[in-house]
Amino acid sequence: MTNLIRFQSYDLPYVKVEDQIFIPIRPICQALGLDPKWHTESIKNDEDLSLVSGVHSIPDSRGHLQKMVCLPERYIYGWLFGIKKTNTMSEETKENLREYRLECYDVMYSYFHGKLIKRKNKLQERVAKTDKIHTLRLKLESELKESPTYKEIIQIETDIKGINKVLKQLDIDIAGEQLSLFNEEAAPTD
Question: How far is CA 80 from the centre of its chain?
C-alpha cells in the first residue's frame, strides 16, 4: 500500500523514516508541470537542501519501488516557495506556483502575526498584573499602617537604624585608636 499526502489537489506518495516524512521530488514536479531532472539536480546542488535530501524507495503508481530523491516534508514547502517562474514553464505551471506562493504568504503572515499578537497580549497581561500588584500593595500598606504589628515593625526598624549608626561610630573610633598605636614614638629603653 502506498502512503499518500495531500498537496493542493494532488495526492503525493511519501515514505516515513524514523518518524520523519520524506516526499519525493519527481511526483511533485510532474504534478506541477516542472522538470523533475532539473529540480532534482538543483536540490543536490543547494547548500542547505543537499544536506537534508536523501534517496528513498517509493512505490510508483503501479506499486513498483523506485529510488527517488526526497526531501523531508518540513523542507518541501520552502523549496516549492523558492521555485522561480521561467519562460519555458506552461501558463498552468506558472499559475500553480503563483497560487502556492500566495498561500505561503498567507500562512507565514498568520504564523508571525499570530506570534506578535500573542506577545502583545502577554505584555498587556503582564502590565495589568503588575498594576494590580501595585494597587494591592498600596492597599495592604495602608491597612497595615493602622495595625499594632506594623507599628512595632516600624519601631524595630528604626531601632536597628540607630544601632547601625552607633556601630559605625564605634568602628571609626576603634580604627582610629588602632592607628594611633603605630603613630606614637617608642619610648627609649636603657
Answer: 24
Residues 96-113 as b or e (16 or more Cβ within 10 Å = b): bbeebeeeeeeeeeeeee
What are the beta bridge partners of residue 6?
Answer: 11
> E strands along the chain, which residues?
3-7, 10-17, 20-24, 54-59, 65-72
Distance separating alpha carbons of residues 62 and 122, to the nearest angstrom: 53
Evaluate if pTM is beyond 0.70: no
- Residue 188 has what pLDDT? 54
pLDDT mean over 50-78? 88
Residue 21's nearest CA partner among 56, 64, 63 is 56
Q: Please report where in the chains the cell 506562493 appears, as a residue.
A: 101
